[in-house]
Amino acid sequence: MNKVEVVPYKEDKNNKKAQVAKMFDNISPKYDFLNHFLSLGIDIYWRKRAIKLLKPHKPSHILDVATGTGDFAIAALKAKPTKVTGVDISAGMLEVGKQKIKKKGLENVISLELGDSEKLAFEDNYFDAVIVSFGVRNFENLEKGLQDIYRVTKPGGKVVILEFSKPTSFPFKQIYSFYFKYILPLIGKIVSKDQAAYTYLPESVHAFPYGKEFVNILNNTGFNHTKCIPLTFGISSIYTGTK
């Protein structure tokens, strides 16, 4: 765990989990728009690329942890599962997701429910695959969350995690850093009306153990055949592993 815990609301005395839930409840009405707008729509490509890695494994039942508004759960249907279950701690985000799924007529395949990523309410060895999109860095206890993901994954099952990382090459590193630190929080604040949410985003990305460091954590959790695939100059990465 990081020595200094990054939280959305610095003056709030609640723990990170409660603060993250509150933050996502606050920004849920504008979340999808901001997600696609601030990433110039590249986040859609990232999700498709992550699910493509899942397809050969033909998972029947997929768990989408920190599902938010359900975008990754919907993208996961390309792997042709019979069922996708999404869990999230934000009721506001889930409500937006449920409306989206209803509109698309996908209620028979995708179900979204309130749940804690670090205390998953499922039996051991329950899912063929577990996916997470931009959610693990919001865990209050990263190792605990990954251990629970490992617990509910079937032996031989696959984990696919999509998360922000940090570009390292000049000049993209400098351009991205400026955008992430100054432009993104400003636009996020204006549109979402929550000043803290889009300041927390770059702070949480900066604190996250990306690349080889995160792969080592996956290995220590028990996952095998772990891999990190950087995307778009290293803005984000896909991490895969097998139980």
The largest β sheet comes out as: 7 strands, mixed
Which runs of at least 5 residues are low in confidence (pLDDT < 50)? none
Overall number of structural domains:
1
Helices and strands: which structural class?
Answer: alpha/beta
The CATH H-level superfamily is Vaccinia Virus protein VP39
Task: State the CATH topology.
Answer: Rossmann fold
Known CATH architecture: 3-Layer(aba) Sandwich
Shape summary? globular
In DSSP terms, counting alpha (H) and pi (I) runs of 4 or more, how many helices? Answer: 8
Tell me the radius of gyration: 17 Å
Q: How much strand?
A: 15-25%
The SSE string, one letter per element, is HHEHEHEEHEHHHEE
What features would you describe in this structure?
With 243 residues, this protein is α/β, with parallel strands linked by helices. The chain is built from eight helices and seven strands, in the order ααβαβαββαβαααββ. It is globular, with a radius of gyration of 17 Å.
Short description:
InterPro entries: SAM-dependent_MTases_sf, UbiE/COQ5_MeTrFase, UbiE/COQ5_MeTrFase_CS. It is built from eight helices and seven strands. It is of the alpha/beta class and 243 residues long.
